[in-house]
Design brief:
heterotrimer, A alpha/beta, B mainly alpha, C mainly alpha, A: alpha/beta, Rossmann fold, six-stranded mixed sheet, 15 strands, 19% strand, B: mainly alpha, ABC transporter involved in vitamin B12 uptake, BtuC, 2 domains, two-stranded antiparallel sheet, globular
């Protein structure tokens, strides 16, 4: 009996002490149920929403994202975090937005109704952008691990963050890379989707800034299979490089048709073509071409291989794409709650912006927009049916001091 | 007008009104998300009734109806967002959107007047694609539509200082954003229903019907088929424009991918499935096709889990499969739609 | 000049593919005035069946040519059965329904076929086995391959074969009679049900052929590949005058060449304002302009009243 009492006393004391550390006196609804509790440790359930397409053509990526979040939450719960004097239990509310903007808003409304403490996602920029307005109106912090469209964080919503380099950063670095390779003239093709066009535009700016001449701007769609007409035109301008802003399903056949038409230029693309699918569809024509992925290869990261092991052991599946980023997004949110010593969105939101967290994918800190500071981009080359790491460009992984002084962590 | 005053229909109207007023509050018990779903259902009713004028009344097969919706949505997005720094009020934008859509309708209508049936179908389909492709590409050389990136931060509907987004207090009640939009949409839908009803029995309505049944005969009895057909296109298009404007305001974000061909097909399916030219039927079609996918989404997945213990078929593909089957089966067994107008039913059952 | 020639070749090959698919549309439309919106989906099924059959036969060690032939045969058979089934189950009961009804049914069938294909073959893009050796030719600086040559030849021959069938055989005569007036044809002893079934079966066999050609050419396939192809082919059929075999052929090739030249030259002609991002529009604009002046297409006869 005595032991129990002392535990209660301790935790109350701890609560008081920690509350003192917080900037302001908050009513803290989270801590409220602790008062009458006869139990040793009050428990608070923290609901995190997670949104990704779980059905439709991108379901495999959605599942991958969700697995990343599930892994993070299990670890957090196993650790037994204490926030605001209460033991915190994280709970995941997974929703499916079908990659459809209309559905994205409906699902976001659902999470707002459920009064979640934070949202991880969505996967696609197209659904993340309209949903971010709802979260902003409700004051709920949102961290996406995969929405790379720059617009998402440029709307002036204080609640919107992402833990991945955006298309602007990626396009710029691809432009720099092209210049480094000694490319003098480039033809740019994009697929007229938000992703492809955004990436191609940024690449164009960076390439022109680096003194590369853009000799052709051509366009296709995300459903096309025949690129001969535009490639023939590109051939007549004799570029050193063809840059493609788009996905693997078009990029692969495009590389193949380039070869058939005798276009001598190399092919460069963003993360959309940096997949095994590209090699499958491009066949031998894929060889020797370049592409980029945000972040660094897991193998090069301190915690990368360990994360891969954990992940494959738990789910019996390989990491598809964004799972490590989603994992980090959950961790950043939990870390912010810990630093704010509150799970109340209005309180810990301020701390999310001040994050300086050593994650799996990078040392995560946000700029004034909520974008990842100095996001690194890695370049890969296709060689004999394999993606070979070439180099990592950009990124401030080595200079964590850049972040404003974050409040010291309490153990 | 007499009919409106008889006690039975008065009671009916009162009951329907009461139900419509109570609906968003009842549905909200399941969460505001359901209010949003209801709102989309009403928006689709609105669109289906607009298309009904073209397809149902005048018998002109239009596979590019979504283009007018897109015109309305982009009009709102451009005139009430930071994109051009314009923030015009609703009473200015909605008429402009309807007007532009109307012009688009006439533009589509005038070269296609001579075409019939299937030729018209492919041309309207092409027109819908043309509008979408232009919206997708008009970001260069002059940035008008912002291309595939779409337009964000669109203003919500507002009357003076009264905004439709977020909660507000009315007579001591808290009323949420989606609930406010609900009432706006219902009001607009009621207006459209009344216009549709009045049109149906008007001179114009009968002229449309005549054209639908036999264009040559219609011409012979002195109907100016050219103008009357254009009028159908123009009116249908204006409704699409208004619906588009509300959609943009409600979503706060528009991008060309919301206006794809499949949306046109969906709206046409609502009209035909419900019962072409019959207003209650069209409303039924719109409501069914909006809710069916939602029901399937929450029903099919869990059901599979319960019966087989795992997901055998991705609910999304099953949902589309059931949707396709519904179209085929309804057409097979009820070729005039689920709730056809009485005259049409008679025509179909009473021999050739 | 070599670039111009290359664009013409690109357009000719693409156009031949459109034409091959358009022939199927036109065949069915000419006889019963029905747009079989699901035709593009039959092409897709044809490609996917070939991948499965030829792919697995190659895997067990059958020579490529033989496996390819087996794949082609299998896909033609499957598609013929599919076409027959489509007509029997979906369209025949609607023969006297209002004219929008079969259109909605066709759209419904198209959705069903796509989703069934997705459940069977999955969502990913599939690679088509290499059935033909890659032989390159070069004329005046323009490249083309044996496959491209084959596509143009096959579609030309198919059209000629169909024309022979329609104008020189007894079945063809029955088809033309049914097209003009099914009732009267019936009185003259033509079994119009059988004739219409035959039209569907032949159209679907053509779709399978087109599917194999498309697969061999691009070497990829996907459950959604049929939709856009079907739409373009339908545009081609209308452009040429739907219901007319030569029209479908001409419409297809015209459409292919317009697209290639449009993507290749319009951008330069308009100072970059209308570039290849408007490639899909050129076809529709040409279609609208043609229909404004010739409401039943380039080669269309008076078919308007059937609508």
């Amino acid at each position: 009996m005595q032991a129990k009492l002392s535990v209660v006393a301790l935790s109350v004391a701890a609560a008081l002490a920690m509350a003192g550390c917080g900037q302001k006196e908050e009513p803290k609804p989270a801590a409220a149920p602790a008062a009458p509790a006869p139990v040793a440790k009050p428990e608070v359930v923290v609901k995190l929403g997670h949104v990704a397409p779980m059905t439709g053509p991108q379901a495999h990526l959605g599942k991958d994202n969700e697995n990343g979040a599930v892994l993070a939450i299990e670890e957090l719960n196993a650790k037994g975090l204490e926030i605001g004097g209460a033991k915190v239990k994280f709970e995941l509310l997974a929703e499916d937005d079908q990659a459809d903007p209309k559905q994205g808003a409906i699902v976001a409304q659902k999470l707002v109704d459920a009064k979640v403490n934070g949202v991880i996602g969505h996967l696609n920029s197209g659904t993340t952008i309209p949903a971010s307005k709802l979260y902003f109106d409700a004051g709920i912090p949102q961290i996406s691990g995969s929405a790379t469209n720059p617009k998402y964080t440029q709307q002036g919503f204080k609640t919107a963050f992402r833990v991945m380099a955006n298309d602007v950063q990626q396009g710029q670095i691809l432009g720099e890379f092209a210049a480094k390779q000694g490319v003098k003239t480039v033809a740019i093709v994009d697929d007229r989707t938000a992703y492809g066009q955004g990436l191609a535009d940024e690449f164009r700016k960076a390439a022109e800034a680096a003194g590369i001449k853009v000799v052709a701007n051509e366009y296709t769609t995300d459903k096309a299979t025949d690129f001969k007409a535009i490639l023939t035109k590109i051939k007549s301008t004799k570029p050193d490089l063809v840059f493609f802003g788009g996905m693997d399903a078009q990029g692969g056949p495009m590389a193949k048709q380039m070869k058939e038409l005798g276009v001598k230029a190399k092919f460069l693309g963003g993360d959309g073509v940096c997949t095994p699918e590209f090699m499958k569809l491009g066949g031998p024509a894929a060889d020797g071409n370049f592409c980029s992925l945000p972040g660094q290869p897991l193998e090069k990261l301190a915690k990368g291989p360990e994360f891969r092991d954990k992940f494959t052991k738990k789910f019996g599946a390989e990491i598809q794409l964004y799972a490590p980023y989603v994992y980090d997004a959950v961790m950043v949110m939990a870390d912010s709650m810990k630093r704010a010593n509150s799970v109340d969105p209005t309180v810990y939101l301020a701390e999310v912006g001040k994050t300086n967290y050593d994650g799996v994918t990078a040392t995560i800190a946000f700029d004034e927009f909520g974008d990842l500071k100095g996001g690194a981009i890695s370049i890969y080359q296709f060689k004999e049916g394999k993606l070979e790491f070439v180099e990592t460009l950009g990124g401030a992984a080595a200079e964590p001091a850049a972040a404003p002084v974050a409040p010291a962590e309490k153990k | 007008m007499k009919r409106w005053l008889n006690p039975r229909s008065a009671l009916g109207i009162t009951l329907i009104t009461a139900a419509l007023v109570a609906l968003p509050f009842v549905v909200a018990m399941g969460g505001q998300a359901w209010v949003r779903i209801v709102n989309f259902a009403i928006l689709y009713i609105f669109l289906a009734l607009g298309l009904n004028i073209v397809v149902g009344f005048a018998g002109l097969l239009d596979l590019g109806y979504i283009a007018f919706y897109a015109v309305g949505a982009y009009t709102w997005a451009l005139l009430a967002s930071p994109h051009f720094g314009l923030h015009w009020p609703i009473w200015a934008i909605l008429p402009i959107g309807a007007g532009l859509a109307c012009v688009a309708g006439v533009l589509l209508g005038s070269p296609t007047l001579k075409l019939r049936g299937d030729y018209l179908a492919i041309v309207t389909l092409g027109f819908g694609e043309i509008v979408r492709i232009f919206m997708n590409n008009l970001n260069a050389p002059v940035n008008i539509t912002n291309g595939p990136q779409g337009i964000t931060l669109i203003d919500p509907v507002a009357f003076g200082a009264f905004k439709f987004s977020g909660n507000s207090q009315i007579f001591g009640f808290t009323i949420s954003g989606p609930q406010k939009y609900y009432f706006l949409l219902v009001a607009l839908a009621v207006i459209v229903v009344i216009i549709n009803l009045r049109l149906q029995n008007s001179r114009i309505g009968r002229a449309w019907q005549a054209i639908r049944e036999d264009e040559i005969a219609a011409k012979a009895v002195g109907i100016n088929t050219r103008n009357i057909k254009l009028l159908a296109f123009a009116m249908g298009a204006s409704f699409g424009g208004v619906a588009g404007g509300i959609f943009a305001a409600m979503q706060g974000f528009v991008s060309p991918e919301s206006f794809s061909l499949i949306e046109s097909v969906m709206i046409l399916a609502m009209v035909v499935l419900g019962g072409m030219g019959h207003i209650p039927g069209v409303i039924l079609g719109a409501v069914l096709l909006t809710f069916l996918p939602e029901v399937l989404r929450y029903g099919v997945g869990p059901l599979q889990m319960a019966v087989f213990g795992k997901m055998l078929v991705d609910p999304e593909s099953l949902r589309m499969l059931v949707f396709g089957l519904a179209l085929v089966l309804v057409m097979r067994f009820k070729p005039a739609g689920l709730w056809p107008s009485p005259e049409r039913k008679r025509e179909l059952t009473g021999g050739a | 000049m070599d670039i111009f020639l290359q664009q013409i070749i690109n357009g000719l090959v693409q156009g031949s593919i459109y034409a091959l698919v358009a022939l199927g549309y036109t065949m069915v439309y000419g006889i019963m005035g029905l747009i079989n919106f699901a035709h593009g989906e039959v092409v897709m099924i044809g490609t996917l069946v070939t991948i499965t059959v030829a792919g697995s036969l190659i895997k067990v060690g059958m020579p490529v040519a033989l496996a390819g032939l087996a794949g082609l045969t299998a896909s033609v058979l499957v598609c013929m059965a599919l076409g027959w089934g489509l007509e029997r189950i979906a369209y025949r009961p609607l023969r006297n329904a209002p004219r929008l009804t079969p259109l909605i049914t066709a759209i419904g069938m198209s959705i069903i076929l796509q989703n069934v294909a997705m459940i069977v073959w999955g969502r990913n893009y599939l690679t088509f086995p290499h059935l033909l050796p890659k032989i390159d030719f070069e004329i005046a600086g323009a490249n083309f391959t044996a496959i491209q040559l084959l596509i143009v030849l096959v579609s030309g021959m198919t059209m000629a074969g169909l024309a022979f069938l329609v104008y020189r055989t007894k079945l063809g005569m029955a088809m033309r009679a049914t097209a003009q007036n099914p009732q009267v044809a019936g009185l003259m002893g033509v079994n119009s049900n059988r004739v219409i079934s035959a039209a569907f079966v032949i159209g679907s066999a053509l779709a399978a052929l087109a599917g194999v050609m498309v697969g061999t050419y691009y070497e990829i396939a996907h459950y959604q590949m049929g939709f856009m192809l079907g739409l373009k082919a339908f545009t081609a059929a209308v452009l040429g005058g739907i219901g007319n075999l030569a029209g479908a052929m001409a419409g297809g090739i015209l459409l292919g060449i317009i697209e290639a030249l449009g993507a290749g030259y319009i951008g330069d002609l308009t100072g970059g304002f209308l570039g290849s991002h408007y490639q899909d529009i050129f076809a529709f604009v040409v279609l609208i302009v043609v229909l404004m002046f010739r409401p039943s297409g380039l080669f269309g006869e008076k078919t308007g009243d059937r609508a």
